Every structure is written in C-alpha cells, then in structure tokens.
C-alpha cells in the first residue's frame, strides 16, 4: 500500500525555472568548455569536470539564487567547490551565465590569468581557495552558520565534494558539526564518480554505504542519478523543503561522462584529452539540441542580508591593570575578546572544547550566540572560521591550545590562499605549561605561523599588551596569530601604552648597555629579572620586547643592538627552528658586526612543574645572567 505522503511527493510538480533540455544542453556545453580549456592548457582535469556537468547546470541555471552582476552579493546562495581540480567546470558555468568571456577561459592555467588550476578569490565569484581536499565542507558550514544565525536570511550553501575526498577525516568532522547545529541550509553534493587518481575509491559505486553513514549522522540523504537533470532538480527541491536537518545528495556519476571510450576508465585522471580532443568534441556537439542562444532563468535572492561594519573595532574599555601585578595572558585574551565584542556585534569566538582554558568562555558568558563551540575537531574549527569571515560578515577569533593548531596547518595555509582574515590565539605555549608534558607544549607554533604568507604574529608580554594585541588583530587584514601563556606573568606596561604592529618596545635601558636581550612571554619576564640582577653588578643590559614577531621590527633591533655593543641574546620557549631567534637572525642578516646568541628548547621536553622545567632547560633568570655574560665576552 502506497502511503498518502508518498503520493503527495509523486504528484508534486518538478520545480523548473529553466527548460529540461536547456539544462541538458548547458551540461554538454560545460563539458565542451572544460575540454577546450584544458586542451589549450595541455593540463587539467576534463574527466572530473565531466562527471559534475549536470550538477553544475542544475545548480547554476535552475536552483541557486544569486546575481551574476554581483557574484558576492551577501544575500545570495553560496557555492563551494571543494574538489577544486574541477575548476574548469565551475569557470565554464560562469562563462555560460555571461560573467566570464569565453576567450578568457582559453587562457586557463596561464601565468597572469586568474582562471588558475584551482579556484582562488582572485576571482570575484570565489569565496575561498579550494583543492587541498577535504576542506570545503567546513567552510560551507561557516558560511551557512552565519547566514542562518547572524544574517537571518533564506540563503542556502551548496558544497560539492568528490567521493575520493570523502575519505578525509575533516569531512566527517564537518558532517558532525553541521548536523549538531541543525544547519538545514547546507546541501552537500557527493560526486560519486567511482574513480580516484590512481584507482577506484574505497566505496566506489556502493552508494548505500554513503547513505547509511550520513543517515547515522542525522542527515537527510538522497541517492540520485547525477547525470539526470530531472532527478537533480527534484533532489535540490527536496533539500529546500527539508527543515531541521541538512541534506546530502549522493550523485552517482561517471568520470569522463559522454567521452566515448574514456568514460569510467582508469588512467585519465588529471590529463588533457590530447589527440582524443577532436573526436570527443564532435560527439558532444552532436548531443546539443538547442544550437543557438540558450534561454535560462537564474532565480534571485529572496531575502536581504543586513549591512554590517567590521572596521575600526576597539576595546569597549581600556586595559585596567596595575604594574607589578600578575595575570595570565590567556585570561587577558578572554577579557579583550569580550571588550571588542561589546564594541562590535559581528565579533565572534570559536573554540575546540578548550574555552575554560583559553578563557574564550568569557565571550560565551557575555553573549552565548557569538561563541561557536566546534568541539575537538580542529580542522573543522579552522574551516568554519574561514567560512564565517567570508564576504566580511564577521570578525572571528579561533582559540585552542597552540599545539593543537598544528593539526589544522593545511587549513590555515589554505586560509592564506583564500585571503582570509581569521585571527588565531594559541594558549599553553612552550615548556612553561609544566606537568602536562611534551604533547601539550606548543614549540613549533611560531615557526608555523611565521611561514604563512601575509600573516601577522603577535607575542604579547603581559595583560596590557595582550588586550591591545587582540584589538590590533581585529583590524589587521590576513591571518593573525597571538601567542599567549598559561602561567601568570607580571604587568610591565602602563594601561595607556601605545602599541603598533611591527614596532618593538624597549623595557629596560641605560647609556652603558653592553648587550641587547630579546625574549617573549615567560622568557622576556625572566630576562627582565636577569637584567635587574646584572644592573646591580654594574653591567648594563637592554631589554627589548618585540611584541610583533612578524612583521619584525628590523630597524628597532638593529638600532638597539648597535647601542648595546653589537651583541644580541635571544632566549625563547620554542624549538630553535623558526622561532624568535631565527626571526632576529633574519632581521640582522645583512648587518655587519652584530653578534647573535640564541637559546631555545633543544629537544623534546619532559614533564615537571613549570619552575622545574624552565630551570631544567635553562630559561630562568639565573641561567640568562650567565648567557648574557658569555655574550658580552664575544
């Protein structure tokens, strides 16, 4: 017996705004343009473009609500091509809708052409760079979270992934996140074309396996013929009607669809068709029914997003501390996050179940709606933040233990390619965390973030400088990273001190300084103590707080080194490679007669109390006194 509900679904009229045959012809034209452009480039992925041609046709010319004239209209539906190697198919859709001139697509992958091998935001219709597989769905989650919870608009986010990349754990982190927050404005499309790069994928065409997995995560999952525009139109309509849970469309497709003698065959991944080009193009051209100009309708956005302003963000109140008192910089971060949130309603915080350690919980207590808990899934955490900041909708701060951010380095790296403005805060850095041991000690984080193009790396010494670092980061383009300590450190700055990115600050000096000391966080504090001890012995030591590790204050370092006998000692709670010492060495590399001695953590450290571990690895004042005296002898 057929249920009444099923009868209703069967009788529902297919929601077409563009004729079915036109959609079929558009899919064929997407295939043709993908072949022509990759042949011109003599590289690329025409077979994987072919497997998604109908999906792109239905999305871009029937389902998605967007503006060709304003590709990044904040009220539009969003599309994320996670399988970025299928970029020619995406570019072809924008050729067909009139944004990109067709001759421009024939410059695919050429130097100077923004139509690159994988999409980047150099193009005005691209939100994020993709192609490092497994990352697009987290970004889609961030886009959708903002649309639903902050902009409160009826906008959907579509994310197309390859079946091969579904093996990435980050995909399942995102699937869990999207389900947990009931993001029913997310539509995941799996291009299940069976073939990976070198062999069939793990699931191949056993699509019921994908469905069972997605159903277990609480998704509305549908298996469809990915080459049937009718099935795809119905599936996307089902997604739009489904409330309270996200939808996944599992599309059975074939790599090289409609490429005679190539379709569904191994050995064609990442290859232009070469001598097969003319034969395949002739076949495809014969499939087109409407030979002239195609008539299609692109639906418009249905609701308008509010205007927002994320510029000139300030602390709602200045720092209010007493010099000589002690407070952990991680705690000052939490306080500053609340202050800038009080100043601007678009400031949000994301955490990986560390909020009571990073003190981002202070934001949750102030405004729970602006704290996004991403749980212990750091790759998704970073991706969600990247998505949330797209189109300048939010100012996002991501916090967790600095060591755990290393797990998401590829996402951070891709964030830079995506021109993201996400701010990262890493707590529990260095051996100074003590008893927890090496697995929790971030000793690579400065090296990691310094290597990110266009990044700004801040290492505040106390609570005052931490609050100002947060304020500065909120207004700084690109990736920013703030390194904060677990132990309490003394307040060394006056509340009204003016900080600048790229400017160091002299903490102690005298007319007879013989060596310049540079440290960060804990080691800066220990260096101040060491300099005070030596001052009592008549030995002048200048202490410099870099504040910004990148961009580093080259002029300030050189000036103060020359005024301090041409000697520099750097002591840091970090491994030797890529930390403060190497940053300082780079700054003075072309300067004659400047001697640099650097002390860092030389090997994988051990557990102990913070004071024991700092002493064991020679980072305390008594050891620094000896390092300074040794440096003066050279």
Provide a descriptive summary of the structure in words.
The protein has 634 residues and is an alpha/beta fold. 38% of the residues lie in helices and 15% in strands. It is built from 24 helices and 19 strands. The strands form four sheets. Strands 8-7-9-10-12-11-17 form a seven-stranded mixed sheet, with helices on both faces. Helix 7 (136-149) crosses helix 15, helix 15 (378-389) packs parallel to helix 17 (409-417) and helix 20 crosses helix 24 (621-633). The longest helix has 22 residues, at 20-41. The chain is elongated and about 90 Å long. The chain starts with a helix and ends with a helix.
Write a concise synopsis of the structure shown:
This protein is 38% helix and 15% strand. It is α/β, with parallel strands linked by helices and 634 residues long.
Give short descriptive properties of this protein.
disordered N terminus; 634 residues; elongated; five-stranded parallel sheet; alpha/beta; seven-stranded mixed sheet
State the total count of DSSP E strands.
Answer: 19
Rounded to an integer in angstroms, the radius of gyration calculated over CA atoms is 28 Å
Major beta sheet, specifics? Answer: 7 strands, mixed
Strand content: 5-15%
């Amino acid at each position: 017996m057929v249920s009444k509900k099923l009868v209703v679904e069967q009788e529902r009229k297919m929601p077409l705004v563009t004729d079915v045959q036109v959609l079929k012809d558009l899919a064929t034209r997407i295939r043709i343009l993908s072949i022509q452009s990759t042949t011109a480039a003599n590289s690329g992925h025409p077979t994987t473009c072919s497997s998604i041609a109908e999906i792109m046709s239905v999305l871009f010319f029937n389902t998605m609500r967007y503006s060709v004239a304003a590709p990044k209209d904040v009220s539009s539906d969003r599309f994320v091509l996670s399988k970025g190697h299928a970029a020619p198919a995406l570019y072809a859709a924008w050729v067909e809708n009139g944004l990109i001139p067709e001759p421009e697509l024939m410059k695919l992958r050429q130097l100077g052409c923004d139509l690159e091998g994988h999409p980047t935001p150099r193009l005005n219709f691209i939100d994020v760079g993709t192609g490092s597989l497994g990352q697009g769905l987290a970004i889609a989650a961030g886009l959708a979270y903002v649309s639903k919870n902050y902009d409160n608009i009826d906008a959907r986010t579509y994310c197309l992934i390859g079946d091969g990349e579904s093996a990435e754990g980050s995909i399942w982190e995102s699937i869990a996140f999207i389900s947990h927050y009931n993001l029913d404005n997310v539509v995941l499309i799996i291009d299940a074309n069976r073939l990976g790069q070198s062999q069939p994928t793990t699931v191949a065409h056993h699509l019921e396996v994908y469905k069972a997995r997605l159903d277990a995560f609480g998704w509305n999952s549908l298996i469809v013929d990915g080459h049937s525009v009718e099935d795809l139109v119905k599936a996307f309509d089902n997604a739009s009607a489904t409330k309270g849970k996200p939808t996944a469309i599992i599309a059975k497709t074939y790599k090289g669809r409609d490429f005679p003698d190539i379709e569904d065959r191994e050995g064609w991944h990442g290859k232009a068709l070469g001598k097969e080009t003319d034969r395949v193009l002739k076949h495809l051209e014969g499939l087109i029914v409407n030979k002239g100009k195609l008539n299609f309708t692109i639906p418009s956005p249905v609701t308008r997003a509010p205007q927002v302003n994320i510029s000139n963000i300030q602390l709602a109140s200045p720092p209010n501390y007493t010099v000589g008192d002690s407070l952990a910089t991680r705690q000052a971060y939490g306080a500053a996050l609340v202050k800038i949130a009080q100043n601007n309603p678009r400031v949000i915080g994301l955490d990986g179940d560390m909020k009571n350690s990073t003190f981002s919980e202070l934001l949750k207590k102030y405004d729970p709606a602006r704290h996004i808990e991403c749980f212990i899934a750091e790759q998704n955490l970073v991706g969600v933040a990247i998505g949330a900041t797209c189109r300048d909708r939010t100012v996002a701060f991501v916090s967790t233990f600095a060591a755990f951010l290393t797990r998401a380095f590829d996402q951070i790296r891709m964030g830079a390619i995506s021109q993201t403005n996400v701010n990262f805060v890493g707590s529990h850095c260095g051996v100074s965390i003590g008893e927890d041991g090496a697995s929790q000690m971030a000793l690579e984080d400065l090296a990691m973030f310094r290597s990110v193009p266009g990044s700004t790396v801040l290492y505040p010494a106390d609570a005052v400088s931490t609050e100002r670092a947060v304020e500065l980061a909120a207004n700084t383009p690109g990736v920013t990273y703030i390194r904060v300590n677990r132990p309490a450190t003394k307040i060394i700055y006056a509340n009204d001190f003016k900080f600048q990115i790229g400017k160091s600050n002299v903490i102690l000096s005298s007319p007879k300084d013989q060596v310049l000391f540079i440290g960060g966080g804990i080691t800066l504090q220990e260096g101040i103590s060491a300099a005070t001890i030596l001052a009592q012995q008549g030995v002048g030591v200048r202490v410099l707080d870099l504040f910004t590790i990148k961009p580093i204050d080259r002029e300030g370092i050189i000036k103060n080194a020359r005024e301090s006998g041409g000697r520099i000692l750097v002591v840091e709670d970090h491994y030797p490679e890529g930390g403060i010492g190497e940053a300082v060495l780079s700054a003075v590399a072309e300067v004659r007669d400047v001697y640099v001695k650097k002390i860092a953590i030389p090997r994988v450290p051990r557990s102990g109390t913070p004071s024991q571990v700092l002493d064991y690895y020679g980072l305390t004042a008594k050891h620094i006194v000896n390092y300074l005296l040794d440096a003066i002898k050279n």
